[in-house]
Amino acid sequence: MNSAELQRIKQRYNIVGNCDALNHVLDVALQVAPTDLSVLIVGESGVGKEIIPRVIHDNSPRRREKYFAINCGSIPEGTIDSELFGHVKGSYTGAINDSPGYFGVANKGTLFLDEVGELPLATQARLLRVLETGEYIPVGGTEIRKTDVRIVAATNVNIRQAISEGRFREDLYYRLNSIPIQMPALRERGEDIVLLFRLFAMQMAEKYHMDRVVLTDEAKQMLMRYKWPGNVRQLKNITEQISILSKERSITPEILSKFIPQDKESTQLAVINKGGDHSFENEREILYKILFELRGNVNDMRREMSMLKKQLEDVQVSAPSMSTVSTIPTMPASPAIPASSPTLEDAVAEEYIEPTPEQENLNLNILSRQMLEKALERNNGNRKKAAQELGISDRTLYRRLKQYDLDDNK
Q1: Distance in angstroms (rounded) separating the CA atoms of residues 262 and 255
Q2: What proportion of the chain, given as a percentage, has pLDDT over 90?
């Protein structure tokens, strides 16, 4: 597209800017306009995505037909199918007449679906069928209707992420994305920021019959360094505020700083607090602390197993009979114990006789009592600390003390 044609388009649609990214967007829009291919416009909120569908429609063979811009995010989920595909009389409460819906009314024309990423999954399935076959069924109806509509969609949602999270159909994305258009953010447009400020200031001066505000060179640089999270919409709001509230017409950085938010943009990385004795400068130190605590837990468990092994060996030495072997308690294997740690199987190498259910219950009771006595001994009779060490509640501890006739221990 030559520069003369580009300037004509910009003047017609009041588009301000000369950056390469914006010129490329307009070039793609004019190239795809004569076709019926679907277009998906992607960009942050406030970048001006709504201008491109109008450019496409006005330069297409459908320019004499109807054009509708629909914000999918503003229509309630319960009525959006009826709005888009129509309904028949009596299909739901309040449906007093038949309605053709936007796809019926816009036949032969163009539909701009803004915020298409907000569509419910059921509506996405209906939309996919229309795009593939040109057919749809009104809400509450049984008759298939035909439509010939050009679809231009736009979104500020990360569609790839929405697909991975199950919020957007992948097949619909590829059907809409026949021709992708990426709108540049305002912070990427360089000197276009100053040109837009000048345009908005001029519009305010003409509308309210006041002198136009003008930026100094230093204020221009400050304006271009700002991140503009709200893009063109935010720039327009700030320009209007300055035009109305500033007594000075020559805007310096000092004046400009009163209107530009001074808080840190959400796009910046969070700063980790380095103060305090217990803070961590990075994730590696946090992981080191977790591993150190885990190592301590494993060592404690290893000591407990060593004590248990010694008790079992003492029992074997004092009464090395088969009946003694049969009363050795069985413990469930724990994945937290290292492979090199001694186990009950290592402690008992003799022939094992399967105990009866009554013997198993007796064995478990003996072991529970021993553990309870040792926990109380280690904690000097403090029941609360003993319960915490055993990982049981105070009530459970008291119940077991009574069960084992240990209630008198302090």
Answers
A1: 13
A2: 56
